[in-house]
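Fold Annotation — chain and its backbone
Next Lines — sequence and tokenised fold

***
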Amino acid sequence: MEHPYVPRDLQLPGYVAISLSQSTILGVFGLASLFVVSLVWIVSGRLRKVSNLDRFLMCWWAFTGLTHMILEGYFAFSPEFYKDKAGFYLAEVWKEYSKGDSRYAGRDAAIVTVEGITAVLEGPTSLLAVYAIAKGKGYSYTLQFAISLGQLYGTLVYFITAYLDGDNFAASPFYYYAYYVLANSFWVLIPSLIAVRCWKKISLAVQGQSQKKNKVR
């Protein structure tokens, strides 16, 4: 069966067409994400001394952590997802997303590496960030800063490698802008804002410690 991806000569032996509709795939993802965010928001509202901004960040880290571990983890360790005949949801997600970037279906080495590292390292640490914020741990800002830098690095590698390889992996302009550009832009904008905030918090803390030492002297 011919696949819908670009380039058309991409070799995908045993390819099985998508069985779920686009609306079903996106709808399930949207509802699952809404459930996670709503649950974390409600639970975090019962915590004392947790600001609304920190509650939002807890929602973000829970969402992105589970996305990394479940979606990206499945991709990284399922090299033949495009052959799935059972209509397994996670396989269907990547068959659909590959319309925006066929490097996923083609198992591009850079993509597999970035997604594997993201799933194994950034996924669990994102969930740790939820805990750190909830408990007011001293390492919270450092952890969030480190994860955000990792996400920015991975996203930059993702975009730059596509550009260097010709940036011709989308089935149509719609998939290019909706999947490749828009869907990934959140992992540029939000980590950037978090990194700046954490940098300021860490800098203030270090400055405060320096001032205390100077007073003691």
In short: The two ends are 77 Å apart (CA to CA). The chain has one domain: 22-208.
